[in-house]
Amino acid sequence: MRDNHPAPVPNSRAPDDAHYPAETASEVRTVAELDGVLVACRACPRLVDWREQVAIVKRSAFRECEYWAKPVPGFGPADATLAIIGLAPAAHGGNRTGRIFTGDPSGDVLYAALHAVGLASQPTATHPGDGLVLRGVRITVPVHCAPPDNRPTVNERNTCRPWLARELALLRPTLRVVVALGGFGWQASLPVLAAAGWSLPRPRPAFGHGVHVRLANQNIGRDVHLLGCYHPSRRNIATGTLTVPMLRDVLRRAARFAQS
């Protein structure tokens, strides 16, 4: 598979050093540079072993595919007004294709909904280079490697956090709205939003579908709207916990806030 991500910028830490994310993320000055250093990361041994094992064993439907098997960076423009924060790449989705929410059932639902509300150029996402363009939206995750059973550990989440913190800091000049998909994305978003200068209410707001919190940032004089949305996982869709109309409604609200 062709590597379409920028080459890493020089850094002082080896990619398998536990401090690589924290010390390297702070050095980058653009979103493109962030993506470049992120894809080299090997800071979490369990996640590295899993993502690479999956790429060898593969799923029968993808037997002929060459898996990406590296950390998956965010996707979307560097001047996005809306950020969508999920959980982690799917083992046979983003870990295979190299693009977040691409080639898996959750992505099928998410990108179709984004297209329906005018935030994506097409309803399908199959592979990088398929023509998909996001309109004012950047999609990212708190954990950039596919975790076993879709469950990163607390330590893995914390080790990976500097990537998300730096990404939101780089988006800060244009960012108006954050949509957190699921409780994991919500909990991961709160500390990085606080670190980027937005004030969190006390007690910290609890996750819920459709929850809306307005966060002030006195440094830049502009608020950001934080919206909660159930994750478009296969299970949530199958059980009706999240329906397509529910997802579209949150995305429409997010788009209105982003344009205001």
UniProtKB/TrEMBL annotation:
<keyword id="KW-0227">DNA damage</keyword>
<keyword id="KW-0378">Hydrolase</keyword>
<feature type="region of interest" description="Disordered">
    <location>
        <begin position="1"/>
        <end position="20"/>
    </location>
</feature>
<dbReference type="InterPro" id="IPR036895">
    <property type="entry name" value="Uracil-DNA_glycosylase-like_sf"/>
</dbReference>
<keyword id="KW-0004">4Fe-4S</keyword>
<protein>
    <recommendedName>
        <fullName>Type-5 uracil-DNA glycosylase</fullName>
    </recommendedName>
</protein>
<dbReference type="InterPro" id="IPR044147">
    <property type="entry name" value="UdgB-like"/>
</dbReference>
<dbReference type="InterPro" id="IPR005122">
    <property type="entry name" value="Uracil-DNA_glycosylase-like"/>
</dbReference>
<keyword id="KW-0408">Iron</keyword>
<dbReference type="Pfam" id="PF03167">
    <property type="entry name" value="UDG"/>
</dbReference>
<keyword id="KW-0411">Iron-sulfur</keyword>
<feature type="domain" description="Uracil-DNA glycosylase-like">
    <location>
        <begin position="73"/>
        <end position="251"/>
    </location>
</feature>
<keyword id="KW-0234">DNA repair</keyword>
<dbReference type="InterPro" id="IPR051536">
    <property type="entry name" value="UDG_Type-4/5"/>
</dbReference>
<keyword id="KW-0479">Metal-binding</keyword>
<comment type="similarity">
    <text>Belongs to the uracil-DNA glycosylase (UDG) superfamily. Type 5 (UDGb) family.</text>
</comment>
